[in-house]
Structures are given as C-alpha cells and as structure tokens.
Specification:
The complex is a heterotrimer. Chain A is of the alpha/beta class. Chain A has helices spanning 15-19, 22-34, 50-54, 58-71, 83-96, 101-111, 117-124, 144-149, 154-161, 184-187, 189-205, 216-228, 238-243, and strands at residues 8-11, 38-40, 78-80, 114-116, 133-141, 164-168, 210-213, 234-237. Chain B contains 23 helices and 13 strands. In chain B, helix 3 packs across helix 4, helix 3 packs across helix 12 and helix 16 (341-351) runs parallel beside helix 19 (380-392). The chains are: A alpha/beta, B alpha/beta, C alpha/beta. Chains in contact: A-B, B-C. At the A-B interface, helix 1, helix 2, helix 3, helix 4 and helix 8 of A face helix 1, helix 15, helix 18, helix 19 and helix 20 of B.
Chain lengths: 247, 484, 250
Amino acid sequence: MINPKGIKASLYVTCIVDQLYPQVGVSVVNVLRKLGVQVEFPIDQSCCGQPLFNSGYVSEAKELALRVIESFKDSQYVVVPSASCAAMFREFYPSLFESDPQLHDIAQNFSERVYEFSEFIVEVLGVNKVNASGDGRHTFHTSCHMLRELGVKDQPLSLLDGVEGIETVDLPQREVCCGFGGTFSVKYPHISEEMLSDKVDNVLSTSCDTLVSCDMSCLMNIGGALSRNKSGISVKHLAEILDEENS
Amino acid sequence: MADIKTKSFVTASKSSIKDPQLRQALEKVGTGFDGARREAIEEISEEKWEEWRLKAREIKEHTIDNLDYYLDMLYTNVTNAGGYVHFAHDDNEANAIVSQLVEENNVKIATKSKSMVSEELGLNHVLEKLGVEVYETDLGEYIIQLAEETPSHLVAPALHKTKEQVASLFQEKLGIPYDEDIESMARTAREVLRDKFLKADLGISGANFLVAETGSLVIITNEGNGRLCTSAPRIHIGITGMEKVIPSLEDLSTFLRLLPRSATGQRLTSYVSIVTGPRRITDEDGPEQFHLIIVDNGRSKMLADPKLREALYCIRCGACLNICPVYQKVGGHAYGWVYPGPIGSIVTPNLTVLQNAKDLPFASSLCGACREACPVKINIPRMLLNLREQLVQPSDGSKSTSTFSENIAAKSYTSLMKHPSMVKLGNIMLKGLQKPFVRDGVVSSVPIPPLSIWTRSRDLPKLPDKTFHQIWENNLKDNQDTNG
Amino acid sequence: MGNPMKNLGTPKNIFLESIRDCLGKVEGPPLEQRENLSQSPDELKQLCAELRVTLDKELDVLLSDLSVSAEARGWNVHRPANVEAVLDHISDIAKIWGVTDISRSDQQVFTEYAIDSGISNLGYNITTIAHNDFPDDRTRLRNAIISSGIGITGADYAVAETGSIVILPRKGLSRLVSVVPAVHIALVRKQDILRNLDDVFLLRRLDYHLGNDMGSYLNFITGPSRTADIEQTIVIGVHGPKEVHMLLLD
C-alpha cells in the first residue's frame, strides 16, 4: 500500500464530463484530495479520440492521441473517470502506433500510467473504503469497457459498499451492455433502443433511487431514458457518491 | 454461392426486431443456450475452463500458422487410409468437384448432415439441378429446407420457427394432418428421413475437426443423422473449410471438452464420429468411397491478414451468438448470409464483399461479451474495429464507404478537439443554441440528426453554465490542501 | 470399387503454396514441433503401460463412476450378474417394445455371454451381423438390421468421465447395428472401462503409430439420440436409437 500523501495524479477529465457533467470532475478532485493526493489538470488536454477510432477514422484518432500523450508526458499517474477513455488509452493507444517503434514505445509508456478512477483508489492508493455517506437505494451498472477491456469488476462495487448510510442492491444483468456503443446508438438506433429498454427495465426492477456507474457515457444513455420515462431515478458517477458526506 | 443479402441489414433488422415471435425465440437462445453454457462451466470451475481455452487457442494458433504443413499431413494420411482429398479454391470449384463425383457415381439420392460450408456453396441447388434428390437430415436443417429458408443460427438453424409453423409446414409439404406436438413432429421426421438414409447413394457431411495425424474427419451430433449419413450410403463426401484441421488426436480431446459445452451446455454430444477413409474390405458396412473436399472460398483473405487470422480459429459453437445483445434482438437472417452474429460479422464480409456488408462490423456496441464467451478466445471486437478501419480508410486503394458528410464531421471534430479555444467557443455557441430546446432542465427534442435520433427515446442533459475547465481555472485548482 | 479416382480440383502443391504465400512462410515443418506429434511408439507404449496399471487399480471406482455418468446421460444402466440376467434384460426390453427381430455384432463378449440360444428360445429371431463371402451377403445383413427392433453390441471401450461407449467398426462389428434399430443394448466389460477421452485417444494413437490401421470409423456413443431443434424443446429419439441400455458386466 502506498502512502496516499505525496502522490501526484493528473486528471484526464473526458469530454463528456468536461462539457456535460463537470460536477463529476469536481467530485473526482475532491475525493482524490480527501485521500491525500495532489491533483493536477493539464489544461490543454483533448478528446481521447475514441469516437473517431471506433468509427474507423484511425488516422484522425492518432492525431488526437499524440496530443493527449504530449499533455500527460510528465504525469506519473493519469486518473480517468471513464472506463471507456481509460480503455482507449490502455488497450488501443499502443496499437495505434504499431508501425512506428518510437511512437509505439511512447504510447506504451503512457498507457502504463493510466488508471480508471476506482481502480486508482483501490489498486494504487490501496484504499478500500472511502469516508463517505449518503442515503437511499443505489444500484451499480458495470460498463463493458470497465469489465472486459480493463478487467475491473469488484473495485467500484466494494467502494460503493463502503459508503455509510446507503442501501445497495444488485442490478439484474448488470454486465449486459446498455446499448450505447458510441455512434452505434445513432447509427443503429432501433437496436440500441431495444438494448437500452432492457437495461432500463432492469434498473426499474431494483426500485432504486440512484443508478451509479463509472462511465458517464453509459449514464447519459441510461439516464436519458430514465429521465424520458420520468422515473425519478437519478444517475451519478461513483465519484459523486464518494464525495458525499452527510453531517 | 448462397444468396448474399448483406446490403439489407438495416431494413432486415428493423423488421426482425418488430417480430414478437422471433424475439421470443431469440430470448430462449440467450437464457437457454447461454445459461446452460454458464452452468456447464460452473460445474468444472472457471480455472479449469480457462485452462482449456488457453490450450485450445494455442493449438489453433500453432496450426493456422502452419496450415500448409498440417493440410499436407492430413492429405497423406487420408490418402493412405484409402480416401481422396480434393482442394477447392472457391465455391465454383467445390461445386464442380461434387458434381463430377455425383455424375461419375450415378448418384440419385443424397442425404446431408450439417455443413455450413455447403451453405456457402449453395450446394443443394447445384445438386438439385443435376437431378439429385437432396435431403437435409438434421431436424432444424430439414425444417428450413422444407420452408425454403436459410439457417438463422449456427447450432439451431430453425430456432426462428414456432412449433405451429413447423406443424403447418409438415402438413403442407408432407401431406400429413396438422399436429403441433413436438415429439410427434420429431417422430415424423424420423420416419420420413429413415427411408432416405437407407436409400441414399451419397452422404454429405461437414466436419467439426480434421485430424492431420491420422487423416480423420470428426463430426459431433446429437440426432444420429451424422452417423447415418456417413455409414449407410456407398459414398461419403465431407466438405469443410481449410481451417478445420488440428494436429493430433490428442488435441481433439481439448476441443471435445469445449465445443459441446460452449454450444449447448452439454458435456458431450450423443455421438462423436471419427471417420478415417472409406470402409475397409473386411468391414460389415460403411461407404466404399470417402472424399474430403477442403475449401478455401475466401478464407485466404483472413489468413493473409495477421489482424484477421484468428477468425479462422472459430470452432462454430455459436456461443458468441447466444450472448450477443445485438444478435438477440435481430436474429440470424438480418446478417444476410450464412454466418450471423459476432463471428459472422467478420467472416461474412471477408468471404463475400466487404463493402457490401459494411453494416456488419458497425452494428455492434463492441461490448466484448462475445470474446468472453468464445472458447478459443477470439478477439472479435478488435477485428470489428479493424474492419471498420478497412471500410472507412482502406489502405489497399479501394473506395471508402463513408459518406461525404461523415468525413466532414470526422475532420471537423478532429480540428475542433485539437484547439481548446475552439472547444470553448463551441461550448458557448451550443449553450446559446440549446436554449429553446431546454425544458425542465433537460433537452428532449432536437430536430437535427444525429441528436434527433438520440432524443427519440432519451433526454439529453442541458449544457451546464460552466465546463470543468472553467471550474478548475476559477476555483478548484488552487485548493490543493486537503484535510483528509 | 469402380474406376480409380484421381484428385479433383486445385492440385495440392498449388493450394498449399497459396497458403504459404498468405502466411509469408516457406515449406517445411513448424519451428516448434508439437510434443504429441514427436512421441515415438516406444514412448506411447510406455504411457499405455502406465495407463493400464492405473486403470487396473481403479476398475471398481471406474465401474461405479461410469454407472453414474451413463445414467446422467440417458443410458438405462443395469448390472447383470450372469448370462441369465443378461437374457432377462434383453427379454424385458423386447417385450416392452414388441420386438420380433434382434441383431447383434460378433464380438468377444458374446463368447463369454452366449445369448443366441437363449434369445431364440424366448421366441425372437437373432441375427449375427458378420458377413460370409457370399455375394449379396452384406445386403442380407443390412436388411436384417433394418428389420431389427433391437441392436446388441459389445463396447470396445467405455469412458467413465463422459458416460460413453466407444465402438470401432470392423469385421463382425457393423456401424449400422448400433444406430438403425430403435433400441441399442451395449454389453460393457469392466476391463474395457477407461477414465476419460484422453485415455481413449492415447490407446488409439499407440495402435496407429505401431503401424496398425486406425479403422474406418470410431464412434463415441453417449446416451440416446436427441434434438432440441423445435422451440428448443428436448426430444429423445430422433434418427438414432430412442433408448439405449448399458449392461455392465463385472
């Protein structure tokens, strides 16, 4: 276990948090600081390029990748509150540059410094329980990238379980895709909507107050449908839950 | 070549997704087959299962990397056992070989046990044109043959049919009274096909595996039709893809442990038949001739591309179909050709025409469940991404399939993202533009695609007053000390 | 057998050369030879001898394991103590199925368990499927199998882990006798029970690498025939036998 005091972590905030859910970024910073981490924010960071990469625009994705790698070249730890961006960095950045050994090494080096938020707390900081409290019934959706690209499964669940005062309930078919898949959701909406509908049914079946995840893209997707259904269920990133402290 | 309908993926999937009967049938596939698979794995433990998967993958990797060597060994050993091996570069050549064998041997009736490759070739039509009576004998294949349809799943080809539909089909095509009792229908099939099994001149099978060491063809079945097709007639033709070979009989046990469990959750199928040449002179029965037709038909394309090569490791278990949320919604026919689902989304574009099957690699959320379920650990999502790149930014000089507006969008997005000041500006603009669309704190309807597509069923959050960048600059960055 | 055939389609060397082009390699064996393909007949002999020692120690355990796994897979498992008990089982089955004709293979086990006169005495026709040199004899035998309500065979091996028997068709052991009739009865001797699939393949590989013929067919039979092709509903008894009986002989 590393002494959390004295660790410097750089935040990769992700487009979707920056633009649509900045409070998640704020919570990430608060939680990390609560744990004694000094947080930096390379101001010129940009989109990770995943939407381009997933759509087949690999050369454009490479341009953005080089920017990101440059922004974080001095960062010892890159903390990412999104499993899909973290997966892009870890699993795909090195292979973007396979034909150029030098760039490949740089990308490889960068990828090894990347951690998803909950992974960072548990694996790097060695913290299994964050001082936080809340109330109401919570359920957790595991994003596909988190589970199957990063291989992170139990860390966020145990962090959520450690929050005082809340009730946690298992989400049925937690590991089944919510149907977002980036541009898939608007290229094949008829299929995406069916998958989303199943996920929403499962969420509703838990009678929860809050749906939690480590991926705002999933939460934007599921949350968008929950809002349309006027379900009254709110969606929150794990960081927001860990940032809450009732007096 | 079987009819290729890959261009119609979108229309086909839109209509299949609205078919309640199909949806019900597909749900069973997920809970049934996939559930049984998980139980079978639990029975032997995740660790053991993982051990087998790694072993299987290693065997396949080694074999495919040395495919020429093992096909050569296979050829020698089949020939030594008294069989004949014919190599077919494509469907025309394969069909020509079968036609010649049929004519030279005066074949009138042929029984077939499952062969996906024969579907690729459109073999049944070829045989029928030669005046041969062809009977599919796997019950599911028999049903769709009567219905003049194509299979909708690798393992359960007629899963899209209800028992009522099968009863009507039997009534219409066999001239028997309507009876929707499932056992009764199976009995009917037994009676009708028994006669054909025993009268057939030719039995055609596929192969689950080919064993190079001994020159053997392996088929695993439950119904017994595989045994009858390969034992009762005087000629047996096995038709299979060139990637099916494995080195040794010893290697076979790893695959026999993985395939039935992955396909249906069974520990082992009712029958495993290992054919090595024709019957021997002293045998009591069995075919006098054994022919093995090894087919390429576009597989070299995947073989030649190191990024696509592992698609050839597939053992056709169907586990990826059973777990795929997309397949479960749209069913097999929407994919437009012989191979549906995740593995189909790679194989079909490569064996047909990539640009005409451009929807297949894109109609996936890349959730990765298929890779998790695959007994040979094939990295399907990776290959789908690779195919997307091939379609959008082809490196072989072929034309990109992306539209002008898609290209503009991609280029603009990239430029925008490289310039934070532009992002800031864009944000300010959008905050202004969104105003008329915001109701109760959300944006619920935007007339412009793609947002209009999104807002069909989902609300969008409204853009907050400040981005994270701004919050950081204004108040967050200086507050470094924490009280823990 | 007709005209000597030749290989049709693309010549082998051209087909294989095209594969080499795809892989970017030259002709020749793999850099790393497979361990199993490098085993000498002596090594295999040694492994089989070791296997035999292990099996001999475990025979009773294997017998009960087989009994359990076979039942789980849909075999009707019996343990007849002697040939009279074997006859009783056959007769019970024949009565239930209303059978008049029975066919059997010609295997060692039927010397030890001579059932022919017993079966005939009970009023059934029993045909041994072993051809003579008369022309058309095979046709006679095939017809006998087709009209049989029960096919009886021995088992060359049985596999405890999977609940299977293994049949190696050859002279006196027809392929069809265990698949055409609606009922198949298999007499399994304790000494032929193996642990798992690996044991079966090891023994077969030794035989093969000693220069013997693999045999045209090797059949694993694990329970009755079945299908789930209509609405995923399992039906027992499709094209193969509807009912299978395993008589475990101690």
